[in-house]
From TrEMBL:
<keyword id="KW-0999">Mitochondrion inner membrane</keyword>
<feature type="domain" description="Peptidase S26">
    <location>
        <begin position="14"/>
        <end position="102"/>
    </location>
</feature>
<dbReference type="InterPro" id="IPR037730">
    <property type="entry name" value="IMP2"/>
</dbReference>
<feature type="active site">
    <location>
        <position position="91"/>
    </location>
</feature>
<protein>
    <recommendedName>
        <fullName>Mitochondrial inner membrane protease subunit</fullName>
        <ecNumber>3.4.21.-</ecNumber>
    </recommendedName>
</protein>
<dbReference type="InterPro" id="IPR019758">
    <property type="entry name" value="Pept_S26A_signal_pept_1_CS"/>
</dbReference>
<keyword id="KW-0645">Protease</keyword>
<comment type="subunit">
    <text>Heterodimer of 2 subunits, IMMPL1 and IMMPL2.</text>
</comment>
<feature type="active site">
    <location>
        <position position="43"/>
    </location>
</feature>
<dbReference type="GO" id="GO:0004252">
    <property type="term" value="F:serine-type endopeptidase activity"/>
</dbReference>
<dbReference type="InterPro" id="IPR019533">
    <property type="entry name" value="Peptidase_S26"/>
</dbReference>
<keyword id="KW-0496">Mitochondrion</keyword>
<dbReference type="GO" id="GO:0006465">
    <property type="term" value="P:signal peptide processing"/>
</dbReference>
<dbReference type="GO" id="GO:0042720">
    <property type="term" value="C:mitochondrial inner membrane peptidase complex"/>
</dbReference>
<keyword id="KW-0472">Membrane</keyword>
<keyword id="KW-0812">Transmembrane</keyword>
<keyword id="KW-1133">Transmembrane helix</keyword>
Length: 138
């Protein structure tokens, strides 16, 4: 009986040691390297969330590329919503700094993307709150 109690103590001790190592490593990974996000809504259909309200896609967001400013046209990025700073939105990069873009419903018909900014749009035009509503994003 004492041997079983000693075995239980060892397993419990090993669990807590592993826990206190795994939690900081996981938090650092999710903050610095990548994290998982759920995509809801129709703005990125049909690329993401093709099932609409019945299902939602899960994506892996790469923090490493953004940290090094390695963003290309066609990349899908996550950014803070200009309408609600507590909400994140997911859009596709359409243009990079210096590019001239023909807009869809923006206050100007053509926009030159300023230095340090990108132009983002949802894949489902007309159902997306994107740069056509709020302009270039830094």
């Amino acid at each position: 009986m004492a041997q079983v109690q000693g075995l239980g103590k060892r397993y419990l001790k090993a669990f807590f040691k592993g826990f206190f190592v795994a939690v900081p490593v996981t938090v650092t990974f999710l903050d610095r390297v990548a994290c998982v996000a759920r995509v809801e809504g129709a703005s990125m259909q049909p690329s993401l969330n093709p099932g609409g309200r019945q299902a939602s896609d899960v994506v892996l967001l790469n923090h490493w590329s953004i940290r090094n400013y390695d963003v290309q046209r066609g990349d899908i990025v996550s950014l803070v919503s200009p309408r609600n700073p507590e909400q994140k939105i997911i859009k596709r990069v359409i243009a990079l700094e210096g590019d001239i873009i023909k807009t869809i419903g923006y206050k100007k018909k053509y926009v030159k993307v300023p230095h340090g900014h990108i132009w983002v749009e949802g894949d489902h035009h007309g159902h997306s709150f994107d740069s056509n509503a709020f302009g270039p994003v830094s």
